[in-house]
C-alpha cells in the first residue's frame, strides 16, 4: 500500500513537471474554469428567474448541488478522464504489453498514470460554490454532516471509477467503441440537477439504473444536514462492491488478453 | 461546379458510411442536454409541459440541422499540416466542408423527420399544422441558421492560422449561444436584457428563430425583423470569411503549414 | 520549366522564455529571432529533367519545395514554374503541378483510394476518357488493381504511397514535386517506386524535383543533383562530376598469393591490410599507374577498382564542407 502511495506521488510529480512545460496554458485554463462555473451559475439563475424551487430544492440548495457537481467533475477530469480513454489506445496499439511487463499493478497503472492538474482548479471552485450556497442558506454543517459528505462523495468517485473501468475493460473484446467517454459525459450531465426534478420512469432510471443523479445529490444533501445514515452506508457498500467487480473483470480480461494475443 | 459537387458529395457520403456508428453515437449524445433542460422546465411549470415538450423536441431537430463541427476539423488539419493538401488543389477548401455539411444534414433529416412523424402519432403534443407559406418560411429560417453556424464555425477554424486554441474560442461562443440561441430556455423566458441582446446578436437566428416560426411565437413583424437581421449577419460573416481567408493564406505562406 | 533567382526565406521564431515572470511578460511583448531557412538560391530546371535535392534535415529542402509549390511566399527573390508565379496560387498553375509529401497523405483515411481519385477527377476537371486512360496506365505501372477498393487505412505504407502517387498524377501534371517519397518504405517497395518514377518521367517528359534522405533514390533516379546545407546551395551539377569532385580517389582492392612487404603508404591511403589482401584509397590520376605496378612486379590473384560509395561521399562532403577548388 505504501509503495502505491509512493508510486502515485511519483506519477503526480512526473505529470506536474510535464505540465509546467506548458505553463503558458495556465491563464487559459484558469479562465476556462472560471467561465465554466460562471455559466453554470448563470444557468441556475435563469431557471430561478422563473421559479423559486427546483424539484423541491431552493436556490441555495441547488447552488450547493452545483458546487458538489463541479467538485466531483474536477476530480474526474483530474484523475479519470486523462486515463480511461487511453486504455482503448493501449489495447489497439498493443502498448498495453509495455505496462504488463512493469512490476506495478496494471490496473493501478492504467488508471492513474496521467493526471491533469489544471482541473484541480475546478475542485477548488466547486468548493467555493458550495461555501457560497451554504452562506446563502445560513447553514453551518456539523462535523457529522461533513464526515457523511466526505464518505458519500468518495463513494460517488469510486462508483464512477468502477463503472467507467468496467466499461473500458470491454475494449479487450470490442475494440471499436469510440466516443464512449462522450456518452459518459452526457449522462453525467444529468447529475447537475436535483433528481426529484425528473418525472416518472426517468427518475427511477436515474436513481437505480444509472445513478447519475444520486452521485451528486447525496453528498449535497449530506452537507445540508439532510443525510440518512442507511443510504450513505449503502452507497459506500455499493461503491466497494463495484470496485471489487471492476477489479475481478480486469483480471479476467487480462487473462483473456495474455492468452489470446501472441 | 455541379460536377465537382456531385463528386464531393459522393465521396463524403462514402466517408460518412465509414463513420456511421460514431455519427449515431454523437447524435444520441447531442440530445441529452436538451432533454435535461426540458425536464427542468417541466418541473418549473408543469402546466406548460406539452409546450415545453414540443419546444425542446424542436430544439433537438433544429440544433442537429444547423450543427457545425468544421472548427474542429480545420483546427486539426491546420495543426497537422494536412490543410496544404486542400490549398494545393484547384478548388476552394470550403467546398469540401459545404459538401460534408450537406451530406450529414441530409442524414440527420432522414433519421429525425420519420422519428418525429411516428412519435407524433402517439404523442399529441408533437403534432402541428402549418400552411405551405409557413413551412417555406421555416425552411428558409433553418437554412439561414445552418449557414450562420457553418460560417461562424469556419471563420473560427481559419483563425487556426494565427492561434492554436481555436476550439476553445469556439467553445466560449457556443456557451454564449447556449443562452442566446434559445437552447437553455425559450427566449421569451429569459430576463428582458438577454432577450434584447438576443435580437441583435446572430445566435438566436441559429436555433431559436426557426423554432419561433414553427411554434407561431413570431408574428409577421418579428419574422420580417428576424430575416432582415439574420441576412445582415450572413453578409457580415461572408465578408469576414473572405477577408480572413485571404489574410490566413498570406499568413500561412509566410510561416509555412 | 523552373526558374529560381536569388531566393530567400526567413522565419520569425518566437524566443521561449523560462521562468514565471518572463513567461507573463512574453505574453505582452514577445521576442523574436530571425531564422534564415533559405539563403540566396538560384537554379534552373529544364523540361523533362529529374533533379535530386539533397541535404541534411533542416537544410531548407522542404522550405524550397514548398515555395516552388506555392505553399510558402518567398521573403525575396523570384520563382517561376511553367511560367507561373507559384505563390499567386492560380488555378492553372495548380492544374499543371503536383506535390507529393511522403508524410502527409492526400488520400482520405477511412475510404478506398478510388474515392479520392474520383474527387480529383472532378476537381481537376479531367474528362472521362483521359481519366480512364490515365487511371489504367497508373494502375498497371503501380500495380494498384487490388488496392483501389480497400479502405486507405487498411493499406500498408508502401501500398499507400503508390496510391498517393497515382492520386497526384491523375491530372498529368507537367511538374512533379516529390518530398521524401520513399520515406519509411522497405527496400523492395523503394525499388518499385523508383522504377515507376523513372519510367513515368521518360514516358511523359514530366519535370521532377525530388528530395530524399536515401542516397539510393538519388543515384537511381537523377543525373543531376543539387545539394543544400544551412539554406545555401552548395552544389548543382551532374552526379558523376560530384563524385569526381568530392572523391578524387578510387578504392583499390588487390589480392595476392603472398602479401608483399612494401611501403604501402607510398601508393595511397591504407584502408585495410590483411592476409593476402590490401585495400587502398588511391588518387584518381594514380590508379592506372599503381595497379600496373603491382601487376608487373607481384603475383596478383585479383584486382578490383571501385568508386567510393555515394553515401560516404556525401557524408564526407557535409562533414568537411565544400571547397570551390
Automatic annotation (TrEMBL), chain A:
<dbReference type="Pfam" id="PF06182">
    <property type="entry name" value="ABC2_membrane_6"/>
</dbReference>
<keyword id="KW-1133">Transmembrane helix</keyword>
<dbReference type="InterPro" id="IPR010390">
    <property type="entry name" value="ABC-2_transporter-like"/>
</dbReference>
<protein>
    <submittedName>
        <fullName>ABC-2 type transport system permease protein</fullName>
    </submittedName>
</protein>
<feature type="transmembrane region" description="Helical">
    <location>
        <begin position="56"/>
        <end position="76"/>
    </location>
</feature>
<feature type="transmembrane region" description="Helical">
    <location>
        <begin position="116"/>
        <end position="135"/>
    </location>
</feature>
<keyword id="KW-0812">Transmembrane</keyword>
<keyword id="KW-0472">Membrane</keyword>
<feature type="transmembrane region" description="Helical">
    <location>
        <begin position="201"/>
        <end position="221"/>
    </location>
</feature>
<feature type="transmembrane region" description="Helical">
    <location>
        <begin position="147"/>
        <end position="167"/>
    </location>
</feature>
<feature type="transmembrane region" description="Helical">
    <location>
        <begin position="227"/>
        <end position="246"/>
    </location>
</feature>
<feature type="transmembrane region" description="Helical">
    <location>
        <begin position="26"/>
        <end position="50"/>
    </location>
</feature>
From TrEMBL, chain B:
<feature type="transmembrane region" description="Helical">
    <location>
        <begin position="102"/>
        <end position="123"/>
    </location>
</feature>
<protein>
    <submittedName>
        <fullName>ABC-2 type transport system permease protein</fullName>
    </submittedName>
</protein>
<feature type="transmembrane region" description="Helical">
    <location>
        <begin position="135"/>
        <end position="163"/>
    </location>
</feature>
<dbReference type="InterPro" id="IPR010390">
    <property type="entry name" value="ABC-2_transporter-like"/>
</dbReference>
<keyword id="KW-1133">Transmembrane helix</keyword>
<dbReference type="Pfam" id="PF06182">
    <property type="entry name" value="ABC2_membrane_6"/>
</dbReference>
<feature type="transmembrane region" description="Helical">
    <location>
        <begin position="21"/>
        <end position="44"/>
    </location>
</feature>
<keyword id="KW-0812">Transmembrane</keyword>
<keyword id="KW-0472">Membrane</keyword>
<feature type="transmembrane region" description="Helical">
    <location>
        <begin position="224"/>
        <end position="245"/>
    </location>
</feature>
UniProtKB/TrEMBL annotation, chain C:
<dbReference type="InterPro" id="IPR003439">
    <property type="entry name" value="ABC_transporter-like_ATP-bd"/>
</dbReference>
<keyword id="KW-0813">Transport</keyword>
<keyword id="KW-0067">ATP-binding</keyword>
<feature type="domain" description="ABC transporter">
    <location>
        <begin position="2"/>
        <end position="255"/>
    </location>
</feature>
<dbReference type="InterPro" id="IPR003593">
    <property type="entry name" value="AAA+_ATPase"/>
</dbReference>
<dbReference type="GO" id="GO:0005524">
    <property type="term" value="F:ATP binding"/>
</dbReference>
<keyword id="KW-0547">Nucleotide-binding</keyword>
<dbReference type="GO" id="GO:0016887">
    <property type="term" value="F:ATP hydrolysis activity"/>
</dbReference>
<protein>
    <submittedName>
        <fullName>ABC-2 type transport system ATP-binding protein</fullName>
    </submittedName>
</protein>
<dbReference type="InterPro" id="IPR027417">
    <property type="entry name" value="P-loop_NTPase"/>
</dbReference>
<dbReference type="Pfam" id="PF00005">
    <property type="entry name" value="ABC_tran"/>
</dbReference>
<dbReference type="InterPro" id="IPR050763">
    <property type="entry name" value="ABC_transporter_ATP-binding"/>
</dbReference>
